[in-house]
Specification:
By secondary structure, the chain is an alpha/beta fold. The chain has 3 domains: about 200 residues, FAD/NAD(P)-binding domain (3-Layer(bba) Sandwich), CATH 3.50.50; about 120 residues, D-Amino Acid Oxidase, subunit A, domain 2 (D-Amino Acid Oxidase, Chain A, domain 2, 2-Layer Sandwich); about 40 residues, no CATH class. The chain is about 30% helix and about 30% strand. Strands 1, 2, 8, 9, 10, 11, 17 and 18 form an 8-stranded mixed beta sheet that branches. It has a 7-stranded mixed beta sheet with strand order 6-5-13-14-15-12-16, with helices on both faces. Strands 3-7-4 form a 3-stranded antiparallel beta sheet. α1 runs parallel beside α4, α1 runs parallel beside α7 and α7 packs antiparallel against α8.
Length: about 400
């Protein structure tokens, strides 16, 4: 068995892994990032929508090469068809892009390689190396060969189905209510607004929503996420999505070019994202917005924080849980309150009837809200329907 040594081994070549690898390498560390697939960013498992404002925060310049379409805003559609249209005057920097995600991911990995990280494709982690109770590396299969990669610290960035964190002893379990099952079609020959993302709530997507994310030239990602406990038609979101498309004259005669599916966590992050010689980032750490299901920006931020903290830990040679604590503090200070608030809102909204959701959209539509975000939307809802937010009023 071949054995390799490095300072940091990153498991997973998505946005979180690439950012961790980049910033650890920029800090002077010897980094190996492994990715089980043969291509970065493929197969696609993402609706590809992001806001703009966080790219500068992580040091990434927008590039037309990986931007499929730029959005002017979003449309929220109630169960009965009431709409609330958000443009940049209301949503500010939350307005964003629809990506070519595979090209975006490749660009981040290219940056990691430019910073000095080694990128190994077709290299799948198969287990943790634990000696005398200490995590000392990763077992992997590289192009059919079993190998060991020994490192001072492991970054678990292996996505929603993360095994690395579990192998290392962290609890990664999920309640079914904190899991959405999703399916998405890339469709052509459809007639939707080309510069507005659309979100349809209510019984069309129990516990979740239907999305339409335009990609230009009469194409769009059309998908659905359904709360795990509400999948009662054969536990198949495809049933709901096909019904929605059939009933929408803009979509019913469209052409499906691609189908992707998968799961999304909708909880407020893991209770612990570090252990001795281990950091967990992005989807693997459940850093996915419980309301929107979006996780790209959280993964990128967390990966950047992880890489910077690892570079500091290397100065003392201490990668213990205590030494890694600044990472916990950084991501929680930046994201945790919002994740918790959105999780509690998600829990409440999943119980509301179509009639109540109709009334909420009308209430928001008639409000004088200056900047639209979940926090401000909940404040508007509190004024008219205080009972809906009673349980988490302290977070508003």
């Amino acid at each position: 068995m071949q054995k390799f040594e490095c300072d940091i081994v990153v498991v997973g070549g998505g946005p979180g892994g690439s950012m961790a690898a980049k910033y650890a390498a920029l800090g002077g560390l010897d980094v190996i990032m492994i990715e089980k697939r043969a291509e970065i960013g493929a197969p696609l498992r993402c609706a590809e929508g992001v806001s703009k404002k966080w790219l500068e925060e992580i040091g990434v310049e927008p590039d037309p090469a990986w931007i499929s379409a730029e959005m002017d805003g979003a449309i929220i559609v109630s169960p009965s068809g009431h709409t609330f249209k958000l443009d940049e005057s209301h949503a500010g920097n939350e307005v964003g892009y629809v990506l070519e995600r595979h090209l975006f991911d490749k660009a981040l990995t290219e940056q990691a390689g430019k910073a000095g990280a080694k990128i190994w494709m077709r290299t799948a982690a198969t287990g943790a190396i634990i000696e005398d109770g200490k995590l000392v590396g990763v077992r992997a299969n590289r192009m059919g060969d079993e190998i060991e990669i020994r490192a001072n610290c492991v970054v678990a960035a292996d996505g929603f189905e993360s095994q690395m964190a579990r192998w290392a002893g962290l609890d990664t379990s999920l309640d079914l209510k904190d899991l959405d099952t999703c399916i998405q079609y890339r469709m052509a020959n459809i007639d939707v607004e080309p510069n507005y993302c659309e979100f349809v709530i209510g019984s069309a997507a129990p516990g979740g929503y239907v999305w339409i994310f335009p990609k230009g030239d009469r194409k769009a990602n059309v998908g659905i996420g359904i709360q795990g406990t509400k999948c009662n038609l054969g536990a198949d979101p495809k049933v709901y999505l096909d019904k929605f498309i059939e009933n929408d004259p803009r979509l019913k005669d469209g052409t499906v070019l691609e189908i992707v599916g998968g799961g999304v966590s909708t909880c407020p992050g893991m209770e612990e994202t570090t252990a001795d010689n281990l950091v967990v980032v992005g989807d693997a750490a459940r850093m996915i917005d419980p309301i929107t299901g979006g996780g790209i920006c959280h993964a990128c931020r967390a990966g950047m924080y992880a890489g910077k903290v690892l570079a500091e830990c290397a100065k003392s040679g201490d990668f213990s849980k205590d030494a890694l604590q600044p990472y916990e503090e950084m991501w929680r200070d930046r994201m945790e309150d919002k994740l918790w608030r959105n999780w509690m809102a998600k829990e409440k909204f999943a119980t509301l009837s179509d009639e109540v959701l109709d009334n909420l959209v009308l209430a928001i539509k008639d409000s004088d809200i200056k900047e639209v975000n979940v926090y401000n939307l909940l404040k508007v809802i509190k004024d008219k329907y205080p009972e809906i937010v009673d349980e988490f009023e302290s977070m508003i």
